[in-house]
Structures are given as structure tokens and as C-alpha cells.
Amino acid sequence: MTNPISAQTLLTRELLARRRPGYSLEAPFYLSDTLLQADMEHIFGKHWIFVAVEPQVPEAGDYITVDFGKNSILIVRDDDMQIKAFHNVCRHRGSRLCATQQGVVGNIVCPYHQWTYDLSGQLIHAKHMGDDFDPKGLGLKPVHVRSLAGLIFICLAKNPPEDFEQMVTEMTPYLAPHRLQDCKVAAQIDIVEDCNWKLTMENNRECYHCMSNHPELTISLYEYGFGYQPDEHNKDELQRFQDIMAANHERWEGMGLPSAEIDTLDDRITGFRTQRLPIDRSGQSQTMNAEVASKKLLADFVDPALGGLSFWTQPNSWHHFMSDHIVSFTVLPISATKTLVRTTWCVHKDAVEGVDYTKENLTAVWNATNDQDRRLVEESQIGIATGAYEPGPYSPFTEGLVEKFCNWYVNRLSELTK
What we know:
Elements: H1 7-18, H2 28-31, H3 33-43, E1 49-53, E2 62-68, E3 71-77, E4 83-87, E5 102-104, E6 108-109, E7 116-117, E8 123-125, E9 144-148, E10 151-155, H4 164-175, E11 183-193, H5 197-204, H6 210-213, H7 235-254, E12 262-263, E13 272-277, E14 308-313, E15 317-321, E16 325-335, E17 338-348, H8 359-384, H9 400-416
Antiparallel strand pairs: 1-10, 2-3, 2-5, 3-4, 6-7, 7-8, 9-10, 11-17, 12-13, 13-14, 14-15, 15-16, 16-17
Helix pairs in contact: 1-3, 3-9, 5-9
Domain Rieske: 48-154
Keywords: 2Fe-2S, Iron, Iron-sulfur, Metal-binding, Oxidoreductase
Protein name: Rieske 2Fe-2S family protein
């Protein structure tokens, strides 16, 4: 006897089969609790998800918790200075172990009955359990975790996608020179957007909206860096940008900083894209004057004008690596119509606040941009919910990465719901 197909699977298959390439998704993808359940099971439950940076857990015993869907994950640095990840659930009667978002522990102690686990997740103390009690096999349930040059990814699947190693091989030369592990967290800000998580990601994957909505970001952002329709009026400016990019790529490559584009956003399970782009104006950093936010440069950099290395991963992150600081974004669903966007700014671990940098200057551009994007995606969510919405066509010049995100999403969900 075959198992009956669930209503969730039937609805998901029907909507996926109707998806028109080059167009936005149908309304249920952004509104339906049933589709969110499919997303949590098949996208966030079976792929590598970016959740944190290593400077959030710099010392043994430092931990953070990450919540998405019904999952609560505990990430801790153990006594051997390795990153470990566990389900944040006691093996006794299921109590949540750590309720705060971050902290420091010697051992992991359940607040309910004080079952105690060491930092490797092994149960080391459980009182009143009798002489025959065997703690073996009752350690914390592990979660797959990997660090890519200081970026922490987890996977809830029993067998995670193996092509993560391919991404590590290709991206480590790009990311490692910035030495994220030698940084500290200067600021971290959470915002909740009243929209589906896919609208947040789609908005990130294009800059069609940037010039008319992001005056702070476009101080340092070249207008042509993320796609533009060529015509008779802009051909000279487009050529100038291409010349600037070619000259900078040659200079950066000569400094040992890979810069060429790699794009596997929709042709791998662990899809990603990277490229180092020049920064406009003074060309140093994503700040209100395009100069460095921190006078203490990362790693052993001496040249502040190293452009902005952008790194996007499917399904839920983007990052900007510069000479003086690193900004990372993680997107986590709260419900079908609410999404957490967590932004983390890192500077050199020896940079001194008030001397080398100020939080206000460091965070100004992306605080403004995040608030503007929140308004944009929330207006999209309202429009989609009216009933008048139907999928519209993407620009082939400025929304190609949105199509790649949707294509990846549709292909992965189709494969996993067969």
C-alpha cells in the first residue's frame, strides 16, 4: 500500500507546475501557511542555512541560539575551540536548554531538572536516575554545522548537501583574506518585516529599486553594478564602469584578492554568487561618505580601497566584505507573513569604539537601507494579499538574480516534493 499524498504536497505540486519562468510567483507562495510548511520542511529543513558569524562565539563556552520555524538551535564553541551545533532541547523531558539569544556557559544545564551536558553535547550529570541509568545515547541531538571562513552554516537534514564542500573550495580564497575569525561583532540589529521571507530575498536580489529608494546606499554603489538596460544615452557611462571594474579587478587580483564573478545561484543545490565590485566616490567602504567606517583595517590590509566583495547564498543570506568591516545578513521565516532580518557588522578585533569607529557611522547606511527595504516588501505583501495581484514579468536587465532565486526555489521544491 502506498502512502496517501498530503494536501500540502498536492497544493505545492500544483502551484509549482503552473509557475511561469521569468515571472514572479503566485500569491499562495507568499500568503499560504501550507506553503510555508513546505518551505520549512524542504528548503530550511534540507539545505545549508547561514545563521551566524564566528565572532559571535569567540571563546570556549560562548553560545548563541537561532530560532526559525519550530526549531531552536544551540551553537556553542567547545573546549577545543571547535564550533558545535545542537537542537536546543533537553533529552530528559524536552525543555528548552538556553532561553537567551547569547551567553556563556561552563556546561549546558537544563533549567528544569538540571540534566547537565558538556560542550561536546555529552550528558555528564543526571541526578535521581538510579544506579542502572546509562547516560550514553542521551547526549544532545547534533546538527550539522560548518564554518566557511568564519561564516557559520547549519543543516538540519540527516544527510546534508555534499556540494557545500565545493562552495568552500571556491569561496575560501575570496573570503579568507578578510580574516573574519579575527574580527569582533561591533553591532547586530534585528528587524521584523511583515512579509513572506521570499519577498525579502527577492528584494535583495535586485537593484532595480535602488536609485529611487536608497539614497544612502547609492552614495557608494555604482548605478551599473547590478544590471542596467543599455541604450544610446548611457552607453558611455556603462563603458566607463566596465573600464573601472576591469582596472580594479586587475589591481585586486595582483594583491591576492580574487575578484571575478562566480555565479551558481540556480544550478547547484548549494547555490551561491560572488563578485568584488568597485565602490563609488572615494571607493573605500559602504558608508555615508564612502570612506572607511573603521580606521583599523581588517587583516593586514594597508589599502582601504579594496572594493566590496559581495557574497550571496541560497536560500537566506548575503554579505559584503570590505577593507575595514564586514556586513552579514540572515533571513529567517517567523510565519507565512513575518520574517526576521538579522544584520551583523564586524570590525577588526583590536578596533576601539569611539577611537577607530563609531556604531552610528558603521551602521548608518544599512540601517537606513534595511528600513527602506522593510517598507517596500511590506507594501508588496499588502498588494499581493488584495486578490488583484497576478504574477508580473521580471526585467531581463535588472532582475535576473531574482529569477535565479525563484528558479532555484522552484527547482529545489519540485525535486523534494516528488
